[in-house]
Amino acid sequence: MYISLSDRGGKRAKPQGAETALPSGVPFRLSPVIVWLGIVSMVTDVSSESVTAILPLYVTGFLGLSTIAFGFIDGINQGASAIVRIAAGWAADRSGHPKRIALAGYGLSMVARIGFLLAGGFWAIAAIVTGDRIGKGIRTAPRDALISVSAQPEHLARSFGVHRMLDNIGAAAGPLIAFFVLLMIPNGFSTVFVVSLAFAVIGVAVLGLIVPDVRADGLPDAAEREGRRLFAFSWSHLKEPGLGKVLIAAGLLGLVTIGDGFIYLVLQARDSFAVQWFPLLFVGTNVVFLAFAVPMGRLADRVGKIPVFVGGHVALLATYLLAASPIGGLATTVGCLVLLGAFYAATDGVLAALASQLTPPGKLATGIASAQTVVALTRMIASAGFGVLWYAAGASSAMVIAGALLGCVVVAVIFILRGTSPANVVNADA
Predict the structure, then answer these.
(1) pLDDT tens across 302-316, in order?
(2) Where are the alpha helices (DSSP H) in 185-278?
(3) Within its chain, how far is the Cα of 99 from the centroid?
(4) How far apart are CA 277 and CA 27, in angstroms?
(5) Contact by Cβ (8 Å): 319, 376
(6) How many whole angstroms separate alpha carbon 288 and alpha carbon 172?
């Protein structure tokens, strides 16, 4: 299996599944494409995370809706993007211009931001969140495909880590902005929505005007056009050696991964801190994420992506158990934020890098999108289910149950992924 890696200067091919250790002597060079995509993600995350940080309070406090209602909305927030992820990945592969597909997704999310200024009820909020998340579903796989073809194969996970680091600077800044807005303007949710829209516009402008339209294949024009005519999406395209096991594992883990908002609501309910401090919980998690993103990427390139991915879910398990403990206070809260940030650093970019290495050329965005779709769908189910579980059993008991289920799934995933690695897949194909 091969992937063309063209960085606007020379072309070189490398077995896509081969894991290359860092001591190979190849120096790390960061593509400008990845930097600009990181900047786009950074300002877009300021937009999205400023809203996400206030959404639990906005829904359950300002609008007075139940945790079941929030669980439904958070489920949409987690999983609505799955509706279009594979289709968007396929469109990016077929067109050979993933930037164009990504731009459409960023644009849709920008338009959805306008709706937050007008909505005030459950169904309106649900519809707007759906539109925003569909935009995310359209843009994510094409964007990650651009990262993959622009990165050095020897430093693939590290390149994703750099992007995620830039992304999470915005993810930390967004809730921080929301915090200051609510601190200065009590119930200033509409002001947060205006700020969110402004940053979304900036992100679309940077992507459209500055990010180059890197092609995702490197095929000669004639062969490229012929390949476009012959390639039609089929679910069999996802039955690549190793990729199926990764999809199963990611799906099982997603079923026991609840939304961050619920974890923060558990902490807030236990310690009863003032609501204006609530957005800082998102800030803390994202600061840890951006601090760990590159080191986790380097670790995944060195020791393997699967061990790091599974280890990230062990950190999530520790988060659940710590949040459910009767011991409150600042230390416990900070511990939860550190563990949760480490979980994201060890799983988000690492899963995309792993999927890209297990996917053949011509189907790169589709393969990445398939992994992201499985995660989004299962996390949507998890959030909706946890909302009902909280309502029935209470916050701490629901968290303990979620932790027990996650522990069982982690053990099962270790057995499922045993013997699976990109290098082994390539050797089997050779």
Answers:
(1) 888 889 999 999 999
(2) 189-209, 221-230, 243-254, 260-271
(3) 18
(4) 43
(5) no
(6) 9
Closest CA to 159 of 310, 301, 364: 301
Cα–Cα–Cα angle for 275, 277, 281, nearest 5°? 115
CB crowding 198-223: b at 16 or more within 10 Å, else e? ebbebbbebbeeebeebbbbbbeeee
The 3-state DSSP class for residue 14 equals strand
CATH class of 29-429: mainly alpha
How many other β-carbons are positioned within 10 Å of the β-carbon of residue 187?
13
Phi/psi at 420 (nearest 5 deg)? -95, 125
Which amino acid is present at 223? A
For the four alpha carbons of 381, 239, 414 and 345, in that order, the dihedral sign comes to: negative
Query: Beta-carbon neighbour count of residue 1 at 10 Å?
Result: 18
Q: Widest CA span of the chain, in angstroms? A: 66
Q: Which two tokens stand for residue 421?
A: 């690695």
Pair of tokens at residue 239: 């039955």
DSSP state of 60: I
**Residues 85, 372: contact at Cβ < 8 Å?**
yes
pLDDT score, position 8: 38
Structure tokens at 71: 């669980």
Q: How far apart are CA 152 and CA 181, in angstroms?
A: 41
Q: What is the helix (H) or strand (E) element at residue 5, kind and residue range?
A: strand 2-6
227/292 Cα distance (integer angstroms): 40
- How far is residue 86's CA from residue 353's CA, in Å, rounded to a whole number? 17
What residues contact residue 127 under an 8 Å CB cut-off, 6+ apart?
115, 119
Dihedral pair phi/psi, residue 210, rounded to 5° = -115, -45
Q: How far apart are CA 122 and CA 63, in angstroms?
A: 8
Overall pTM surpassing 0.85 (yes/no)? no
CB crowding 278-301: b at 16 or more within 10 Å, else e: bbbbbbbbbbbbbbbbbebbbbbb
Q: What is the pLDDT of residues 91-144, one digit of tens each?
A: 887 877 888 888 999 999 999 888 888 877 788 888 888 888 888 888 888 888
